[in-house]
Specification:
Order of helices and strands: HHHHEEHEEH
Mean pLDDT: 91
Distance between the termini: 43 Å
CATH class of the largest domain: Mainly Alpha
Strand content: under 5%
Strand order of the largest sheet: 2-1-4-3
Number of helices: 6
Radius of gyration: 40 Å
Low-confidence stretches: 1-5
CATH architecture of the largest domain: Orthogonal Bundle
Structural class: mainly alpha
Number of strands: 4
Number of domains: 2
Length: 261
């Protein structure tokens, strides 16, 4: 016959909850060390990618303008050839009407040349303007890439120091959760998400709950020290443990954390 699982005592539940809090707080510390660095790196990566995309577009625009200049130059050469052809034909006309008609064609081609030259001038001004933008963008890109490299180096250094420990702590946190009844884990997580610094389980310090200035009545402090029931702070909603229990668990967990580094 299978042995019936023994019910955890309130003290065991309090110890398990405080241990879980210590593990999760250590994960919080590691993430605080990283701070905004991952977001900064992501923002810089997006900025660099955006600048590279802009440079690609500017270079594509330049290619289009260069092609347009080439087309206009071809048009000028064609117009010059036609002028030469029409001028030669004028020497062999039979009447003024033919001569005037060819003159109009020559005049039209000359206007075409003028217009094409005007467009080429405009295109060259656009090229100059875009090259200025490209030079400015390249300069800023180089500066942002250097900044990104520096920030990535910082982040990689921190990750190298803490990633292994963080992964081990997260696994440990999940393991500890399984040993605590579901309703308490849910309560713990709810409190943790609603309080400053994610502290859901705190010891009594100088007659008040950790991180609070509201004094806990002596009678309640005695109840907390008796470890007979789970008591929450009426002001913050945090689960309270006595200082002696907290110190014992801190010493125990410090040994565990040391092994994870």
């Amino acid at each position: 016959m299978a042995k019936k699982k023994t019910e955890s005592t309130v003290e065991e539940k309090l110890r398990a909850l405080f241990d879980l809090q210590l593990i999760d707080s250590r994960v919080d510390e590691i993430r605080n060390v990283r701070g905004e660095l991952p977001l900064e790196v992501q923002d810089l990566e997006d900025e660099v990618a955006g600048m590279n995309t802009r440079l690609e577009k500017l270079n594509t625009d330049l290619e289009v303008i260069e092609e347009s200049i080439k087309d206009k130059k071809n048009l000028i050469e064609e117009a010059k050839a036609l002028i030469k052809k029409y001028t030669a034909q004028q020497d062999n006309v039979r009447n003024n009407r033919e001569y005037n008609s060819l003159s109009k064609e020559i005049e039209y081609q000359e206007l075409e040349i003028q217009l094409a030259e005007k467009h080429i001038k405009e295109f060259k001004a656009q090229i100059e303007q875009k090259n200025e933008v490209i030079d400015g963008t390249k300069e800023r890109l180089k500066e942002r890439e250097e900044h990104l490299k520096h920030k990535q180096g910082e982040l990689n250094e921190i990750l190298a120091e803490t990633e292994k420990e963080e992964e081990a702590l997260i696994k440990e946190s999940a393991k500890y959760e399984k040993n605590i009844e579901e309703r308490l884990v849910k309560a713990y997580k709810r409190i943790r998400s609603n309080v400053k610094n994610g502290l859901a389980v705190v010891p009594v310090e100088r007659g008040a709950s950790g991180g609070s200035f509201f004094t806990i009545p002596p009678q309640v402090q005695m109840e907390i020290a008796s470890r007979k029931k789970i008591i929450t702070d009426e002001h913050s909603g945090r689960i309270l443990v006595d200082p002696a229990l907290a110190e014992e668990e801190r010493e125990k967990m410090a040994k565990l954390f040391a092994k994870m580094k």
